[in-house]
Design a protein that fits this description.
single chain; alpha/beta; Rossmann fold; Arc Repressor Mutant, subunit A; 2 domains; four-stranded antiparallel beta sheet; 8 helices; 23% strand
Length: 222
């Protein structure tokens, strides 16, 4: 499941976008301003950021994008109601971005986000010891052998890979993968998936899968 960080100060538009994206099975975190955006970015670890250029704050969308680019190459989709060439030029001077002017058709923005997600998915690969993991195909490959994971196991491993070296808290993992905040109903499923993944990687030198009650779960690859 792809995660979209949505930054839009028009509450009606933001709520509409969030609902439309969630209907398409995106996980969405919605911010109405950019004040705490880097804290939210670090916590949520989005795959795509959709942000309004003209926020009613000290930081505009371009300033936020520069902060994001200091820590991540995540795709950015800018929206703006301003009809200025300088905005257009500035948006495309930032790598891995797209740009759409307001007022826009909701279908157009959704298509652009889906296109960005598909582009990222097709190119994404993680090396885990001798294994190669392809999230979009739910597939592990080792010495030409292909191992297919179910949707939930693949998504858990995907989140672990994207946060390699760092603990992911169990509530966040469960909310991201199973779309529920009721940890109790899915904690057993998460434990089973972690046990299964450990069996795949137990003979891989430098690969460690950890579960700690207070810290969460983590993948370490040396």
């Amino acid at each position: 499941m792809y995660k979209v960080l949505l930054i839009e100060d028009d509450l009606n538009l933001g709520t509409t976008l969030r609902g439309a994206l969630e209907e398409r099975k995106f996980s969405v975190r919605y911010l109405s301003g950019g004040t705490n955006v880097m804290k939210e970015f670090a916590d949520f670890q989005p795959d795509i950021v959709l942000l309004d250029v003209n926020l009613n704050e000290e930081l505009d969308g371009f300033a936020i994008s520069r902060k994001i680019r200091e820590v991540s190459p995540v795709p950015l989709l800018f929206t703006t109601s301003r009809d200025e060439n300088t905005d257009f030029d500035q948006a495309f001077s930032i790598p891995n971005t797209d740009y759409v002017r307001k007022p826009y058709r909701l279908a157009e923005v959704l298509k652009r986000i889906e296109k960005l997600a598909a582009k990222e998915a097709s190119a994404e690969k993680f090396d885990i010891g001798r294994y190669e993991f392809y999230p979009s195909q739910h597939k592990l490959v080792i010495q030409e052998e292909e191992i297919y994971l179910n949707n939930y196991a693949s998504e858990v491993l995907n989140v672990l890979c994207k946060n390699a070296g760092n603990f992911v808290k169990r509530p966040l993992m469960i909310e991201t993968v199973w779309k529920t905040k009721d940890i109790r109903t899915k904690e057993g499923s998460l434990n089973n998936i972690m046990s299964m993944l450990r069996k795949y990687f137990e003979n891989e030198e430098g690969v460690i899968l950890e579960s700690r009650i207070k810290l969460g779960v983590r993948l370490k690859v040396d």
